[in-house]
Structure formats: C-alpha cells, structure tokens
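subagent[fold] <- orchestrator: predict structure for attached chain, return tokens only, no commentary.
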Amino acid sequence: MTTNSFVVSDLKELLVMQRVFREAKFCKLADDDEVSSSPLVNELFGRLLDALISKEVEQEGERARKQ
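subagent[fold] -> orchestrator:
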C-alpha cells in the first residue's frame, strides 16, 4: 500500500492553514455545506491545531501551550 502525505511544519504556514480551516468550517455564511458539516474537516482541523500548538511550544516554550 502506498502512503501519501502532506506535511506543513512552518509556523506561518500552519497559521495560514488555521485561518483557512476556520473560515471553511466555522463561517456563519458558509457557501459549501459539505465543508462546514464534514466530520473529516473537523478531524483535520483538530490535527492542525495539535500541530500548531506543538510547533509554538517548540519555539516559545510551555507558556505557549496555555495560549
């Protein structure tokens, strides 16, 4: 079986992806109901937040986890 992956580890890129996911998932006037109601988008958003927190803790220390 072939494994495909998409890796984003740069903090700025993670922050941009966070904004995109927030807009797609939580926008009150969503244009695409399949995105806003998708459990897969929700899971990916959670994984993105975990990666973002890890990266910020790596760069700024444990105080970043509380933010």
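orchestrator: received. Logging for downstream: Residues 57 and 64 are 5 Å apart (CA to CA). The helical segments are 11-26, 33-36, 39-60, 63-66.
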